[in-house]
Amino acid sequence: MSTAISPLAGKPAPKLLLVDVAKLLAAYFDLHPDPAVPAQRVAFGTSGHRGSSFTRSFNEQHVLAITQAICDYRHQQAIDGPLYIGIDTHALSQPAFESALEVLAANRAQTMIAKGGEFTPTPAVSHAILAYNFGRSTGLADGIVITPSHNPPDDGGFKYNPSHGGPADDSVTDWIGARANALLEAKLKDVRRMPLAQARRAATTREHNFLDAYVGDLTHIIDFDAIRASGIRMGVDPLGGAGVHYWAQIAERYKIELSVVSEVVDAQFGFMSVDWDGKIRMDPSSPCAMQRLTALKDRYDIAFACDTDHDRHGIVTPVGGLLLPNQYLPVLIDYLFQHRPEWSQSAAIGKTLVSTALIDRLAQRLGRKLLEVPVGFKWFVAGLLDGSLGFGGEESAGASFSRIDGTVWTTDKDGIVPALLSAEITAKTGHDPATRYRELAAELGEPFADRLQAPATAEQKSLLAKLSPAQIKTSELAGEKIDAVLDHAPGNGAAIGGIKVIAASGWFAARPSGTEDIYKIYAESFRDAAHLQMILSEAQHIVDATLAAD
Questions:
Q1: Which of the residues 47, 149, 396, 525 is marked catalytic?
Q2: Of 203, 310, 331, 426, whose Cβ has the fewest other Cβ atoms within 10 Å?
Q3: What does the buried/exposed string (b/e) look like for 175-187 if buried means 16 or more CB atoms within 10 Å of the residue's CB?
Q4: Where in the numbering of this chain does the Alpha-D-phosphohexomutase C-terminal domain appear (predicted)?
Q5: Domain extents for the chain?
Q6: Would you identify the CATH topology of the domain 217-265+281-444?
Q7: What is the CATH code for 448-548?
Q8: What are 207-241's pLDDT values in tens digits?
């Protein structure tokens, strides 16, 4: 296995890479999926159903079936409060929203759409659900977010957030997915639907000001007084995403020196630099994709970006350039657990098992319990909701944390608040996060980390997901005794869908992606770069042997 870096990586996207939006939208309506073909069925990954209309994996019939399945699930579970629906700026999101609204209105679901047709970040939907449900035990709200996150411009995505406000767990998505596929197989016979114009006029379709509600409540999670008093200069690149109009409102409401790099929305995302593999991908944690903002780093004291649905963050400093998530998350955690005195002393730190082990060492130093879970933000929902987790975060730059008073903010990933917290950290400590990261690494050990990924078929991904400790025949990892081989997460005992091998000064994890046709190997060493390469080499050998069994 190897990760091939494209010669286009980090360069402005050439015209040949730009999606033909007209053809993409035509394919959404004209191409029909065949439910007998596995790749064309509804399949919920870690963040909903995703695909492209070109490959018949995200088309009108998928959206109609999934929405009807959600309506059926709501009826079964007696969820009869409002359903909040948001969309991002991907080309397929608008037609998918219209298809969904036709079904929701026909099913008489009270549907809250964004005021004025505004784009809606994922965290704003989670925030709305929780705000409505506060103090209620009946008539609860839930939500839909139409987004493929940071995926390429020809992708579409559709995810369901139940009444807890966060990503649905497997029991829910399995039910919805099975029902949606049954509807596809029956040629949508039981899908209730009405014309779009009628659906928009329906008494059950109402507008909600997601932007004002979310932005107005940020004062309860970020110390804007400290940011404003410091006078620091901030820059933000929305990457043409759903929060594109939120940032100017944040700057105006809280009177802070925050400049928006660009408010351009372009369904082709032609302003992006190309990601590592030659694709356009709006990933704020990717050095290749973040060229526009990193080129401006010296103009600001701190700068940040978010992905297309604004549930991931990227932090840029004059000193360190783009911080990797595994560099910023420890800084964020260290700051929060020392500057939020109203938080419970028992509030724990949540991390996924592929996040840096520097967080493990930091949790021990802070005297906080560590909850290590599989990949997927759904594992943090319950803890964020009841306050037993002060923070939950992923190596892929998704995170959320409690309000200043220790109560729940969102139960889904929020890219906006970690971005703003980087400004609070800079304002209150006088040091940007890159400086603080170097201090933590000097104190607790500097990790050397890398992540490799490569294409994988569905069959290969299935083999990797079933990799077990019994298949690891070696007793050493890069010259050290293996201390543990995990196929279940230590924090909650859930299957990790892959494997993690741990030694005293390094580890690796191998797992298939839940959202793309790729597999990933994560590795980390607390020795040096050479030791990291040894770990990666041995991890590659294990993965290659597994795939060879296909």
A1: 149
A2: 203
A3: bbbebbbebbeee
A4: 485-535
A5: 20-210, 217-265+281-444, 448-548
A6: Alpha-D-Glucose-1,6-Bisphosphate; Chain A, domain 3 (3.40.120)
A7: 3.30.310.50
A8: 999 999 999 999 999 999 999 999 999 999 999 99
